[in-house]
Amino acid sequence: MSFASDSEVRTRSVPTAAHLTLMGFTPLGVKQTPGGCVIRFSPAALDALNRFLQAKTDLDLMIERAEGTR
Hints:
Blueprint: E1 2-4, E2 9-11, H1 14-22, E3 29-33, E4 36-41, H2 46-68
Antiparallel strand pairs: 1-2, 2-4, 3-4
């Protein structure tokens, strides 16, 4: 799960956080929430987050379609 506010981008996903880190965004830290921990990034990471999530959705659809053709 990932989400953004005006002040920061947050994700519970380690793979998503790793992608943002590899894209050059430094984590601001980890915040404990009632639902678990979230990794925080600056709002500047929002575009990279959205591109990552779109690519993941596209790949999930490709796999789903391939599995449907068996």
